[in-house]
Specification:
The structure is a single chain. Helix content is about 35%, strand content about 25%. With about 400 residues, the protein is α/β, with parallel strands linked by helices. α3 (about 60-65) crosses α4 (about 80-90) and α8 crosses α10. It starts with a strand and ends with a strand.
Protein backbone atom coordinates (compact mmCIF):
# COMPACT_ATOMS: atom_id res chain seq x y z
CA UNK A 1 0.00 0.00 0.00
CA UNK A 2 1.10 3.53 -0.81
CA UNK A 3 -0.63 5.91 1.59
CA UNK A 4 -1.20 9.64 1.58
CA UNK A 5 -2.16 11.08 4.97
CA UNK A 6 -3.61 14.58 4.86
CA UNK A 7 -3.29 16.33 8.21
CA UNK A 8 -0.42 16.10 10.70
CA UNK A 9 -2.50 16.89 13.78
CA UNK A 10 -3.71 14.86 16.72
CA UNK A 11 -4.86 11.92 14.57
CA UNK A 12 -2.75 12.31 11.41
CA UNK A 13 0.45 11.78 13.40
CA UNK A 14 -0.67 8.45 14.92
CA UNK A 15 -2.05 7.34 11.53
CA UNK A 16 1.29 7.98 9.83
CA UNK A 17 3.08 6.18 12.68
CA UNK A 18 0.90 3.08 12.34
CA UNK A 19 1.35 3.00 8.56
CA UNK A 20 5.12 3.53 8.75
CA UNK A 21 5.45 0.37 10.90
CA UNK A 22 3.15 -1.76 8.73
CA UNK A 23 4.93 -4.30 6.53
CA UNK A 24 2.21 -4.03 3.90
CA UNK A 25 2.85 -0.30 3.49
CA UNK A 26 5.68 0.71 1.16
CA UNK A 27 5.38 4.50 1.31
CA UNK A 28 3.73 7.13 3.49
CA UNK A 29 3.38 10.76 2.41
CA UNK A 30 2.24 13.13 5.14
CA UNK A 31 0.69 16.37 3.88
CA UNK A 32 -0.25 19.44 5.87
CA UNK A 33 -0.77 23.14 5.24
CA UNK A 34 1.92 23.66 7.89
CA UNK A 35 5.01 21.84 6.54
CA UNK A 36 6.93 22.44 9.76
CA UNK A 37 4.30 20.57 11.76
CA UNK A 38 4.43 17.67 9.29
CA UNK A 39 8.23 17.62 9.49
CA UNK A 40 8.14 17.43 13.31
CA UNK A 41 5.73 14.51 13.16
CA UNK A 42 7.82 12.70 10.52
CA UNK A 43 10.98 13.24 12.55
CA UNK A 44 9.39 11.66 15.60
CA UNK A 45 8.16 8.66 13.58
CA UNK A 46 11.52 8.11 11.87
CA UNK A 47 12.26 5.26 9.48
CA UNK A 48 12.68 5.45 5.73
CA UNK A 49 9.06 5.21 4.59
CA UNK A 50 7.73 8.65 5.40
CA UNK A 51 8.12 11.95 3.59
CA UNK A 52 6.26 15.23 3.91
CA UNK A 53 4.69 17.77 1.57
CA UNK A 54 2.75 21.00 1.91
CA UNK A 55 -0.92 20.50 1.02
CA UNK A 56 -3.96 22.72 1.44
CA UNK A 57 -7.07 20.73 2.42
CA UNK A 58 -9.32 23.37 0.85
CA UNK A 59 -7.88 22.78 -2.64
CA UNK A 60 -8.79 19.47 -4.26
CA UNK A 61 -6.40 19.98 -7.19
CA UNK A 62 -3.47 20.65 -4.85
CA UNK A 63 -4.28 17.57 -2.77
CA UNK A 64 -4.53 15.46 -5.92
CA UNK A 65 -1.15 16.69 -7.18
CA UNK A 66 0.50 15.80 -3.86
CA UNK A 67 -1.26 12.45 -3.44
CA UNK A 68 -0.98 11.09 -6.99
CA UNK A 69 0.20 7.49 -6.96
CA UNK A 70 -1.33 6.71 -3.56
CA UNK A 71 -3.57 3.68 -3.19
CA UNK A 72 -5.42 5.20 -0.23
CA UNK A 73 -5.97 8.80 0.81
CA UNK A 74 -6.46 9.22 4.58
CA UNK A 75 -8.49 12.32 5.42
CA UNK A 76 -7.25 13.46 8.85
CA UNK A 77 -8.29 17.11 8.66
CA UNK A 78 -11.43 18.74 10.05
CA UNK A 79 -14.70 17.56 8.44
CA UNK A 80 -15.50 20.80 6.61
CA UNK A 81 -12.78 19.88 4.09
CA UNK A 82 -14.08 16.34 3.42
CA UNK A 83 -15.72 17.14 0.05
CA UNK A 84 -12.43 18.57 -1.30
CA UNK A 85 -10.37 15.62 -0.05
CA UNK A 86 -12.89 13.10 -1.35
CA UNK A 87 -12.86 14.78 -4.76
CA UNK A 88 -9.07 14.56 -4.84
CA UNK A 89 -9.19 10.83 -4.04
CA UNK A 90 -11.66 10.25 -6.87
CA UNK A 91 -9.56 12.31 -9.29
CA UNK A 92 -6.40 10.23 -8.65
CA UNK A 93 -8.21 6.87 -8.45
CA UNK A 94 -7.48 6.24 -4.76
CA UNK A 95 -9.64 4.75 -2.05
CA UNK A 96 -10.55 7.18 0.73
CA UNK A 97 -10.96 6.94 4.50
CA UNK A 98 -12.05 9.66 6.93
CA UNK A 99 -12.62 9.57 10.68
CA UNK A 100 -15.47 12.10 10.74
CA UNK A 101 -17.63 14.03 8.29
CA UNK A 102 -20.04 16.93 8.19
CA UNK A 103 -21.95 18.70 5.41
CA UNK A 104 -23.12 18.00 2.79
CA UNK A 105 -23.31 14.38 3.94
CA UNK A 106 -25.33 15.05 7.11
CA UNK A 107 -28.04 16.87 5.20
CA UNK A 108 -28.12 14.13 2.56
CA UNK A 109 -28.62 11.45 5.22
CA UNK A 110 -31.27 13.48 7.05
CA UNK A 111 -33.36 14.16 3.94
CA UNK A 112 -32.66 10.95 2.03
CA UNK A 113 -30.83 12.63 -0.85
CA UNK A 114 -28.17 11.00 -3.06
CA UNK A 115 -24.80 10.99 -1.33
CA UNK A 116 -22.12 13.29 -2.78
CA UNK A 117 -19.83 11.48 -5.26
CA UNK A 118 -21.32 8.07 -4.39
CA UNK A 119 -22.30 7.38 -8.00
CA UNK A 120 -18.93 8.53 -9.36
CA UNK A 121 -17.01 6.40 -6.86
CA UNK A 122 -18.99 3.30 -7.77
CA UNK A 123 -18.35 3.91 -11.45
CA UNK A 124 -14.62 4.22 -10.69
CA UNK A 125 -14.71 1.00 -8.59
CA UNK A 126 -13.53 2.93 -5.52
CA UNK A 127 -14.49 2.79 -1.86
CA UNK A 128 -14.78 5.81 0.42
CA UNK A 129 -15.21 4.81 4.06
CA UNK A 130 -16.74 7.76 5.86
CA UNK A 131 -16.19 8.31 9.58
CA UNK A 132 -14.12 5.30 10.60
CA UNK A 133 -12.26 6.36 13.74
CA UNK A 134 -13.21 5.32 17.26
CA UNK A 135 -16.59 7.08 17.39
CA UNK A 136 -17.83 7.16 14.74
CA UNK A 137 -16.11 4.03 13.47
CA UNK A 138 -15.14 1.30 15.90
CA UNK A 139 -18.35 1.74 17.91
CA UNK A 140 -20.39 1.37 14.68
CA UNK A 141 -18.62 -1.86 13.75
CA UNK A 142 -19.13 -3.38 17.21
CA UNK A 143 -22.80 -2.38 17.07
CA UNK A 144 -23.20 -4.02 13.66
CA UNK A 145 -21.46 -7.14 14.99
CA UNK A 146 -24.41 -7.56 17.36
CA UNK A 147 -27.26 -6.29 15.20
CA UNK A 148 -26.21 -9.01 12.73
CA UNK A 149 -27.35 -11.52 15.38
CA UNK A 150 -30.86 -10.09 15.57
CA UNK A 151 -33.87 -10.55 13.31
CA UNK A 152 -35.26 -7.11 14.18
CA UNK A 153 -33.64 -4.09 15.82
CA UNK A 154 -35.83 -1.85 17.94
CA UNK A 155 -33.26 0.54 19.38
CA UNK A 156 -29.57 1.38 19.54
CA UNK A 157 -28.30 3.63 22.32
CA UNK A 158 -24.67 4.74 22.20
CA UNK A 159 -23.03 6.24 25.28
CA UNK A 160 -19.52 7.56 25.98
CA UNK A 161 -18.06 8.60 29.32
CA UNK A 162 -14.62 9.59 30.58
CA UNK A 163 -13.22 9.83 34.07
CA UNK A 164 -9.92 10.93 35.59
CA UNK A 165 -9.41 9.64 39.09
CA UNK A 166 -7.99 12.14 41.52
CA UNK A 167 -7.91 14.93 38.90
CA UNK A 168 -10.15 18.00 38.88
CA UNK A 169 -11.02 18.31 35.19
CA UNK A 170 -11.83 22.01 35.36
CA UNK A 171 -8.24 22.76 36.41
CA UNK A 172 -6.56 20.86 33.56
CA UNK A 173 -6.06 22.29 30.02
CA UNK A 174 -8.84 20.99 27.79
CA UNK A 175 -7.56 18.93 24.87
CA UNK A 176 -10.11 16.61 23.25
CA UNK A 177 -7.40 14.76 21.29
CA UNK A 178 -8.49 16.06 17.91
CA UNK A 179 -9.33 19.49 16.51
CA UNK A 180 -10.50 21.65 19.45
CA UNK A 181 -12.49 23.74 16.98
CA UNK A 182 -14.42 20.76 15.66
CA UNK A 183 -14.95 19.41 19.17
CA UNK A 184 -16.43 22.75 20.24
CA UNK A 185 -18.72 22.87 17.20
CA UNK A 186 -19.93 19.35 18.01
CA UNK A 187 -20.85 20.59 21.48
CA UNK A 188 -22.59 23.74 20.25
CA UNK A 189 -24.54 22.50 17.22
CA UNK A 190 -27.94 20.75 17.17
CA UNK A 191 -27.87 17.00 17.66
CA UNK A 192 -29.89 14.37 15.82
CA UNK A 193 -31.46 11.14 16.98
CA UNK A 194 -33.95 8.65 15.57
CA UNK A 195 -37.41 8.47 17.13
CA UNK A 196 -40.29 6.40 15.76
CA UNK A 197 -38.09 5.60 12.79
CA UNK A 198 -37.56 9.25 11.85
CA UNK A 199 -34.52 11.50 12.25
CA UNK A 200 -35.27 14.24 14.78
CA UNK A 201 -33.35 17.40 15.63
CA UNK A 202 -32.72 18.41 19.24
CA UNK A 203 -30.81 21.10 21.09
CA UNK A 204 -27.25 20.54 22.31
CA UNK A 205 -27.04 19.29 25.89
CA UNK A 206 -30.66 18.11 25.79
CA UNK A 207 -31.89 14.69 26.86
CA UNK A 208 -29.99 14.69 30.15
CA UNK A 209 -29.88 11.28 31.81
CA UNK A 210 -27.71 9.39 34.27
CA UNK A 211 -26.32 6.26 32.62
CA UNK A 212 -24.76 3.43 34.60
CA UNK A 213 -21.30 2.74 33.17
CA UNK A 214 -19.09 -0.09 34.42
CA UNK A 215 -16.64 0.70 37.23
CA UNK A 216 -14.57 2.71 37.82
CA UNK A 217 -16.69 5.25 35.92
CA UNK A 218 -20.06 4.31 37.37
CA UNK A 219 -23.16 6.50 36.98
CA UNK A 220 -22.47 9.52 34.77
CA UNK A 221 -24.55 12.31 33.27
CA UNK A 222 -24.84 12.15 29.48
CA UNK A 223 -26.67 14.31 26.94
CA UNK A 224 -27.45 14.37 23.23
CA UNK A 225 -24.38 15.32 21.20
CA UNK A 226 -23.94 16.20 17.51
CA UNK A 227 -22.45 13.04 16.03
CA UNK A 228 -22.67 10.93 12.90
CA UNK A 229 -23.75 7.57 14.35
CA UNK A 230 -27.55 8.02 14.56
CA UNK A 231 -27.62 9.26 10.97
CA UNK A 232 -25.54 6.44 9.50
CA UNK A 233 -27.03 3.64 11.59
CA UNK A 234 -30.52 4.75 10.55
CA UNK A 235 -29.30 4.66 6.93
CA UNK A 236 -27.49 1.32 7.16
CA UNK A 237 -28.89 -1.03 9.81
CA UNK A 238 -32.49 -1.50 8.70
CA UNK A 239 -34.33 -4.32 10.53
CA UNK A 240 -37.08 -1.93 11.61
CA UNK A 241 -34.87 0.38 13.69
CA UNK A 242 -37.16 2.76 15.59
CA UNK A 243 -34.85 4.57 18.01
CA UNK A 244 -31.16 5.50 17.91
CA UNK A 245 -29.18 8.14 19.74
CA UNK A 246 -25.67 9.16 20.74
CA UNK A 247 -25.08 10.68 24.16
CA UNK A 248 -21.80 12.05 25.47
CA UNK A 249 -20.69 12.60 29.03
CA UNK A 250 -21.33 16.06 30.43
CA UNK A 251 -17.86 17.60 30.35
CA UNK A 252 -17.77 20.84 32.36
CA UNK A 253 -15.18 22.68 30.26
CA UNK A 254 -16.80 22.68 26.79
CA UNK A 255 -20.22 23.10 28.43
CA UNK A 256 -18.96 26.29 30.08
CA UNK A 257 -17.45 27.51 26.79
CA UNK A 258 -20.70 26.91 24.90
CA UNK A 259 -22.96 28.52 27.48
CA UNK A 260 -20.64 31.55 27.65
CA UNK A 261 -20.86 31.99 23.89
CA UNK A 262 -17.19 31.18 23.34
CA UNK A 263 -17.98 28.45 20.81
CA UNK A 264 -19.86 30.89 18.58
CA UNK A 265 -18.75 31.52 15.00
CA UNK A 266 -20.66 34.82 14.84
CA UNK A 267 -18.31 37.85 14.78
CA UNK A 268 -18.31 40.24 17.74
CA UNK A 269 -16.72 43.68 17.91
CA UNK A 270 -14.32 44.44 20.74
CA UNK A 271 -12.99 47.97 20.58
CA UNK A 272 -11.87 48.48 17.00
CA UNK A 273 -11.47 44.79 16.18
CA UNK A 274 -13.95 42.17 15.05
CA UNK A 275 -13.32 38.57 16.12
CA UNK A 276 -15.16 35.28 16.26
CA UNK A 277 -15.21 33.95 19.84
CA UNK A 278 -14.35 30.41 18.77
CA UNK A 279 -11.19 31.65 17.01
CA UNK A 280 -9.94 33.30 20.20
CA UNK A 281 -10.68 30.22 22.29
CA UNK A 282 -9.00 27.82 19.85
CA UNK A 283 -5.95 30.09 19.78
CA UNK A 284 -5.62 29.72 23.55
CA UNK A 285 -6.26 25.96 23.80
CA UNK A 286 -3.47 23.34 23.43
CA UNK A 287 -2.75 22.30 19.85
CA UNK A 288 -4.06 18.84 18.99
CA UNK A 289 -0.74 17.57 17.59
CA UNK A 290 0.94 18.18 20.92
CA UNK A 291 -0.60 15.01 22.34
CA UNK A 292 1.35 12.93 19.79
CA UNK A 293 4.54 14.99 19.73
CA UNK A 294 4.75 15.22 23.52
CA UNK A 295 3.61 11.69 24.30
CA UNK A 296 5.39 10.50 27.43
CA UNK A 297 5.93 6.71 27.74
CA UNK A 298 6.74 7.16 31.42
CA UNK A 299 3.09 8.14 31.95
CA UNK A 300 1.54 5.01 30.43
CA UNK A 301 1.20 3.00 33.64
CA UNK A 302 -0.12 5.95 35.60
CA UNK A 303 -2.59 6.82 32.84
CA UNK A 304 -4.03 3.31 32.98
CA UNK A 305 -4.60 3.78 36.70
CA UNK A 306 -6.11 7.25 36.47
CA UNK A 307 -7.73 7.82 33.07
CA UNK A 308 -10.71 5.84 31.83
CA UNK A 309 -12.89 5.97 28.73
CA UNK A 310 -15.93 3.79 28.21
CA UNK A 311 -17.99 3.31 25.06
CA UNK A 312 -21.34 1.55 25.46
CA UNK A 313 -23.68 0.18 22.83
CA UNK A 314 -27.08 -0.92 24.12
CA UNK A 315 -28.99 -2.83 21.43
CA UNK A 316 -32.56 -4.07 21.75
CA UNK A 317 -34.40 -6.26 19.29
CA UNK A 318 -35.71 -9.76 18.69
CA UNK A 319 -34.23 -13.09 17.73
CA UNK A 320 -36.31 -16.15 16.92
CA UNK A 321 -39.41 -14.33 18.15
CA UNK A 322 -37.94 -13.48 21.56
CA UNK A 323 -36.82 -10.13 22.96
CA UNK A 324 -33.06 -9.79 23.11
CA UNK A 325 -30.86 -7.06 24.60
CA UNK A 326 -27.10 -6.67 24.23
CA UNK A 327 -25.08 -4.26 26.34
CA UNK A 328 -21.56 -3.98 24.98
CA UNK A 329 -18.81 -2.36 27.05
CA UNK A 330 -15.85 -1.08 25.06
CA UNK A 331 -13.07 0.18 27.37
CA UNK A 332 -10.51 2.68 26.13
CA UNK A 333 -8.45 1.61 23.12
CA UNK A 334 -5.32 3.34 24.42
CA UNK A 335 -4.73 1.09 27.46
CA UNK A 336 -1.43 -0.79 27.82
CA UNK A 337 0.47 2.02 26.18
CA UNK A 338 3.83 0.25 26.28
CA UNK A 339 2.57 -2.59 24.10
CA UNK A 340 0.82 -0.17 21.74
CA UNK A 341 4.00 1.87 21.37
CA UNK A 342 5.92 -1.31 20.57
CA UNK A 343 3.38 -2.23 17.88
CA UNK A 344 2.52 1.17 16.42
CA UNK A 345 5.06 3.70 17.67
CA UNK A 346 2.37 5.43 19.75
CA UNK A 347 -0.38 4.64 22.22
CA UNK A 348 -2.76 7.13 20.59
CA UNK A 349 -4.25 4.65 18.13
CA UNK A 350 -7.92 4.89 19.10
CA UNK A 351 -8.95 6.90 16.02
CA UNK A 352 -6.19 6.06 13.53
CA UNK A 353 -6.08 2.26 13.81
CA UNK A 354 -9.73 1.72 12.80
CA UNK A 355 -9.08 4.00 9.81
CA UNK A 356 -6.10 1.86 8.76
CA UNK A 357 -8.21 -1.32 9.06
CA UNK A 358 -10.90 0.25 6.88
CA UNK A 359 -8.29 1.17 4.26
CA UNK A 360 -7.04 -2.42 4.11
CA UNK A 361 -10.59 -3.67 3.64
CA UNK A 362 -11.10 -1.18 0.81
CA UNK A 363 -7.96 -2.45 -0.89
CA UNK A 364 -8.95 -6.09 -0.39
CA UNK A 365 -12.35 -5.44 -1.95
CA UNK A 366 -15.55 -4.39 -0.23
CA UNK A 367 -18.66 -2.39 -1.07
CA UNK A 368 -18.00 0.44 -3.53
CA UNK A 369 -19.07 4.03 -3.32
CA UNK A 370 -19.67 5.93 -0.07
CA UNK A 371 -19.58 3.40 2.75
CA UNK A 372 -20.16 3.86 6.47
CA UNK A 373 -18.29 1.72 9.02
CA UNK A 374 -21.28 -0.47 9.86
CA UNK A 375 -21.58 -1.39 6.16
CA UNK A 376 -18.20 -3.12 6.28
CA UNK A 377 -18.07 -6.82 7.15
CA UNK A 378 -17.94 -6.55 10.96
CA UNK A 379 -16.40 -9.99 11.54
CA UNK A 380 -13.64 -9.33 8.99
CA UNK A 381 -12.97 -5.87 10.42
CA UNK A 382 -12.68 -7.13 14.00
CA UNK A 383 -10.45 -10.04 12.98
CA UNK A 384 -8.09 -7.68 11.16
CA UNK A 385 -8.17 -5.33 14.14
CA UNK A 386 -7.22 -8.05 16.64
CA UNK A 387 -4.68 -9.61 14.25
CA UNK A 388 -2.55 -6.47 14.65
CA UNK A 389 -1.68 -7.83 18.10
CA UNK A 390 -3.49 -5.06 19.96
CA UNK A 391 -4.14 -6.14 23.56
CA UNK A 392 -7.85 -5.35 23.57
CA UNK A 393 -11.18 -6.96 24.29
CA UNK A 394 -14.75 -5.76 24.61
CA UNK A 395 -17.33 -7.23 26.95
CA UNK A 396 -20.91 -8.39 26.60
CA UNK A 397 -22.94 -7.37 29.65
Amino acid sequence: MKAFVLGAGGQGGPCASILARDKEVTEVVLGDINPDAAARVAEKIGGGKIKTVKADAAKADEIAACARGADVLFDMVIPEFSPHVLRAALDIGAHYVSTAFDQPFWEELIYGRPLTLDKELKEANLTAVMGCGMAPGFINVITKHYTDRLDTVESVKLRIAKKKLGVEEMLAPWNPGWSPRQALLDCAEPAYFVENGKITETAPYSGLEVYDFPPPIGPAQVTHHAHEEPLTLAYSIGKGLQYCDFKYYLSPQPAAYVTAGLASTAPVRIGGAEIRPIDLLVKLLPKSENAFLNEDPDRYVQADKEQFVCLMSEIRGTRNGRDKTYKIHMPKLTANGGKLRELFGTSLIHVALPAVIAAKMALAGTKKGLVFPEELDAADFLKRFLDTGIPYEWHEM
